[in-house]
Amino acid sequence: MSIVALTARLFTHMPRRKAVILPLFAAALFAVRPLAADEAALLRQLAEGTPAEKDSARQTLLVSATAAAIPTLTAQLARPETFDSACLLLEALGLPEADAALRAALTTLDGRELAGVIAALTRRADTAAETAILALVDRPQPVRSAALAYLGKLATPRALAALAAAPQDAITADAMLVAAETLLARGDEKQALALYARVSDDTRLADHIRLAAFCARVTADPDRAHTLLPAALNHASAVWRGTAARLTAQLPDKLLKRRGEDLMKALEPQGRLAVVQALVHAKKRAGAPLVRAALKDGLDAPSRLAAAAGLGDIGDADDADALIALLGQTDDALADAARMSLIKLDDPKTDARIAKALARRPANDAALTRLLGVAAFRKTPRAAPAIAEHLAATAPTVRTAAFQALTELATDKQIPALVAAFCKAVDPQERRAAEKALMACARREPDATTAAILPLFAGADAERRSSLLQATGLAGTPAGLELIQRAVDDSERAVADDAVRVLANWKEKTAAPKLLQLAKTYPNTSLRVIALRGYIRLIDQEQDQAGRATMLREASALATRTQEKALVAGAWRTVPTPEAVAALTPMLDDPALKTEALKSLKVIALHTPVDVPDKAPGSLLTPLTFVPRRIGTYRSEACCVADFNGDGKLDIAAGPYLYLAPDWKAVRIRTVSSNVGEDGKGYADDFCNLVVDVNKDGKPDILAACWFSKTSYWYENTLGSSKELWPEHVIDPLGNHETGTLVDIDGDGKALEFLPDTGVTVWYEPGVLTNGQPGYVRHTISMDKSPFGTGVGDINGDGRPDVIRPNVWYEAPKDIRKDTWKKHPIALGGKDGKVEHTANIIVFDVNKDGLNDLITSVAHKYGIFWYEQQRDASGTISWRQHLIDDTWTQPHYLAFADIDNDGNKEVIVGKRFMAHNGGDPDAFGKLCVFYYRFTPGPNPVFRKHVVTYDEGVSAGLNIVPVDIDGDGDIDLITTGKWGGPVIYENRMTEWVSDDERRAALGVKPTVPEPLPVDNLALASRGAKASSDSELPGNTGCTARLNDGKRSTHSDFPATRWHSALTPMPHWAEIKLAKPAAVRRVIAHFADPNGYATAFEIQVKKGDAYTTVYKTDKNRDGKSVNVTFDPVQTDTVRFVFSANANPAYPNAAQLSELEVYAE
């Protein structure tokens, strides 16, 4: 028989009690058949094997046994040790012959085995066994239970008669319940109900059996539930009552409404209580009439209490009046239950009932007090007029409750009564509630509260006048101000003092004149100080700057204590004038005032020059605060910013890593050759990082340029589509790159052209290469040598961007791609008129004379300058040098951005760390970044301010000004060989303590793991390297392939494998210590000019090599990272077919060959 057929048959005939069959059947479905096993052998194994062998045979036979096995299995029924398996298999076969074998065993077995056969026939629903099993009902256990269960399942007339004649015990009852279930399934409701009644009414049986029958009886015959339930609900057992009550709550809504009243009338108190509790617990709204009846008739206190508490959950507004009537009960529990139900009623019409009841005045003060509390809790606005009337009640508790309700509910119409009642309140608790309500009204309805206070203020006693003044102060209206100013002269000194305090907290400047007068003349010294503080606080309310200055002069003259002087110092920041600077500067000598004075001077410095020295030589107090935050520790010198992963947040790229916002998780995206040590000496060959979408796929790519590899590259952004390192594409092996910038050379307003800072002058524009791939197309301006330093801008005013070098500027022709660029001499960088290596050159009209000037610095010495463009009568251009700063060295890059939001750009520049490994002037000077503010116009003055100074961080080869955190101001991003990148967060004029700065900078960033991490090719792991040849004089260089030392730009001749110069191809391979499922190979090239343009990766299978990857279009000059489907091998070979160096076309060289199984 097929497994599909067996599956269908077993599930078609699966009995209700299938706990044994299902697990074994599931195991059989997934069992593995023994190899070359026939049925006879399996049956012998089932009888004679070990326990494990028997289990295996049983599982196999469950899915493969045939009718031929029946005789053997029948024989095994007779043996106790084989009975279970034999019986199971015969049942599972489901064949008539198998059923006959089981029936035959009824006459030969006894005890446990006989009961097992009966159970199998029960599950098979085998009617042919009825006569035989009827004869077994008087046998001892467990046969009797099995036989009765069979009869219950069969439920034939003979079976039912036998059950009726059997002794009435738990076993028979259980069988009867099964029979009733069978009869219901057949549609014989009458017989089924009779069986349920017989069991449930039999007092000899245990309660749990009777209750099971009772529940089934009520569920099967709900129309007669009202006649069945009373007896159970009136039962002495709480279990019976609770079960019956839950059944009542489960009755259909229509039936409950139709029969519920009759049911409740038939119940004793305990039964009624159980029903009420069950209906409430079930949230049975259809049962609400029954609960109301229990509340109304008052036949027993517990039911009435439960009903009062429960109507809040299942009742509606029609129950409100009955509940309100209970609020005055002397039984506090009943009254409180009614109060809570009133609060819980979710029918919105309830509020109207409450309002009417308040207007009618409940029967007694207790009821009224509770009802007022309900109105307050429910926040019933329409009840406010009625509540206000109760402010005049005789009982203090009622008046207190009225005040508490009006705290939230009073409108302008009730406020006069509330204020009048406040003035009369005598009881302490009432007075507290009245004062709280008064203050709440003053905040919510300031005009109405003030209007109510004014006519009553003079007649109130002193204590109340003080409270009324506080409320007037909270209201803050003009009319209230007049009252408070008059109250300053109150005859009661305590009231007058309170008036001064309230006035000192006034929010409008209209209080300022009176406060100034009080600060000068009030007799109480402490209150004079309070008045002065209030006056100072109102200074920033004055819209006119001159008016603020006048107020500050008045306050300064009165401030004698340090606390008030500090307040004055803080207020001076609202007057950014030389007067404010003059007033604040002397405070810097007072330690107690210095911090507040500096805070104000910082703000003022945004608008007015503040010549207060800062911590760096020549620097002035900075108006801006930059908080440095280190997010990485890699020692490189270039970075860029863009939303690289498309999540709407700006990320940072620096060195080999991409730092993803907002938590700056580092992801490795490329390889960077580096030998930078902990002292900052050495170099990472990554001198320029720029953002541009080269292939126009909507993702920002990275353009990079290198000094040591003498090449520029672009890295293709594959985030989201690949987890591999980004593909590296060569732009041009032009030569040593100092750095580079994106500029607008074609004058289209978009800075998309790449201007490398090299010894020659060329530029690149994005386009399509000759091979059809996206890339950058080179245009040569001049091959003449120039010192490093580049800039772009319109020098001669012809509307075309020119290119500037330290020794020459090139005038752009009409056709910038084909025509010749005209040379004009220039001398930038040196103080003595000599040409020096400069930073990038900014083109900008500094003095606003209509001619573009230049801003730059000498990159490795002292000096930041601007060069004024001058023209003689003939139009000849000359340049006049102006010094900006020469107090520090290595200002290698100038950013130009409006970082203070004043509409003018600032020059931002930082010290490059270890530019020449300590060989420059002041190479070990304090690390720093400064910005220089100036106002374009005649004779501009550049004011030097600190971004960071002597904090262990500075800048590198570029600074990116960008709003990295999206708060509306420009932050600064940079990195350097001190370990970065670092975000200088712009906090504008916010004051940040030194401790906070240190804490921000001291956060340890997560250091990313190298990727991948388990190189199987290392010699230290037992792998061996071999090659087809070695360059003469380099014997043994093959071992460098897997020594774990990658070449750098300066040591590759000593750390590489180099082939002989015999014709291509050449190969190098790694034999692993043991076979592995290899799926990744990384080959690091040595000489960046001689990388492989065409290569294969092969793996050894047996005695042959199979190619798993091949290309003749490689443009990755540093390394290739290749993945493929996993291949089991112990040898990986890299085959060179062509290289990028036409001078040595047969040279093959690798720094390191890595193999990974991932």
Describe the structure.
The chain is α+β, with helices and mostly antiparallel strands. The protein folds into four domains: about 45-55 and about 65-165, Leucine-rich Repeat Variant (Alpha Horseshoe), CATH 1.25.10.10; about 365-400 and about 410-605, Leucine-rich Repeat Variant (Alpha Horseshoe); about 625-1000, YVTN repeat-like/Quinoprotein amine dehydrogenase (Methylamine Dehydrogenase, Chain H, 7 Propeller); about 1020-1155, Galactose-binding domain-like (Jelly Rolls, Sandwich), CATH 2.60.120.260. Helix content is about 40%, strand content about 20%. It contains 39 helices and 35 strands. Strands 29, 30, 31, 32, 33, 34 and 35 form a seven-stranded antiparallel beta sheet that branches. A four-stranded antiparallel beta sheet has the order 1-28-27-26. The protein is flat. The two termini are about 45 Å apart. The model is unreliable at about 1-35 (pLDDT under 50).
Q: How can the largest sheet be summarized? A: 7 strands, antiparallel
What would CATH call the architecture of the largest domain?
7 Propeller
Shape: flat
Number of strands: 35
Q: What is the typical, i.e. mean, pLDDT? A: 92
Give the CATH level 1 class of the largest domain.
Mainly Beta
- The Rg value, from CA coordinates, equals 48 Å
Number of helices: 39
List the helices and strands and how they pair.
Elements: H1 3-12, H2 21-29, H3 39-48, H4 51-64, H5 70-76, H6 80-93, H7 96-104, H8 111-123, H9 130-134, H10 143-154, H11 157-165, H12 170-186, H13 189-201, H14 207-220, H15 225-233, H16 238-249, H17 253-265, H18 269-281, H19 288-297, H20 301-314, H21 320-326, H22 332-344, H23 350-360, H24 365-378, H25 384-389, H26 396-409, H27 415-424, H28 428-444, H29 446-457, H30 462-475, H31 478-487, H32 493-504, H33 512-521, H34 525-537, H35 545-558, H36 562-571, H37 578-584, H38 591-605, E1 626-634, E2 639-642, E3 651-654, E4 657-660, E5 665-668, E6 688-692, E7 701-705, E8 712-715, E9 728-732, E10 739-743, E11 753-757, E12 761-768, E13 774-782, E14 791-793, E15 802-805, E16 808-811, E17 822-825, E18 842-844, E19 853-857, E20 862-871, E21 877-889, E22 891-897, E23 906-911, E24 928-933, E25 943-949, E26 959-962, E27 971-974, E28 980-986, H39 994-1002, E29 1024-1027, E30 1057-1058, E31 1066-1085, E32 1092-1101, E33 1104-1111, E34 1119-1139, E35 1149-1156
Antiparallel strand pairs: 1-28, 2-3, 3-4, 4-5, 6-7, 7-8, 8-9, 10-11, 12-13, 14-15, 15-16, 16-17, 18-19, 19-20, 20-21, 22-23, 23-24, 24-25, 26-27, 27-28, 29-31, 30-35, 31-34, 31-35, 32-33, 32-34
